[in-house]
Amino acid sequence: MDALLLVDTTRDHLPSPPPPLVDLVDRVRGVGGVIVHVAERAVESGGAGEQAADRAAEGVAEHARAPERTEDVEDGDLEVGDLQPQIDSAVGTTEDELVLVSGSPDAFEGVEDLAEGLDDLGVDRIIVSGSNARGGLLESSAAALAIGFELTVVRDGLDDSGEWVAQLEASGAVVKDGAAVWLKM
User: Fold this and answer.
1) Residue 47 binned pLDDT confidence (cut-offs 50, 70, 90)
2) Domains, the chain, ranges and CATH?
């Protein structure tokens, strides 16, 4: 099974996502596929959001956030979306997608148990796309290959991609335009 790993697709890093990337995200959502958003900081005003951003800047992954007002939450009232950080994604997020904050460009280093969690879901191939503004695409892609995942790098929207994409290809990654990526879900 595939997982679409969207690295730094926040409006800060990817203000205008290329249409083939938007189409790929829509296709993965349409088949109920696994989508993981990884960003360097959460977007919230005050309290837990600022603390999460501070921890991310220090290299500590933030998997979840506390509810804003714990006195309003009764046992069993929390949903998955309530526990995830929020990001300003250029492609949007849905409540069933995993949103992670990592202070490290390498999502697998910055988010504890990411590889194990994907493996538990039956993911064997990672399709990676987004922005390499802070080196996240390169670092996360190299880590995915080293861990043993099959890797497809989506070429659409990549800036400054020449040499590092060629290095990933030489290491076993497949590089394709978003429209040419077939999904195995």
Assistant:
1) very low
2) 2-180 (3.40.50.850)
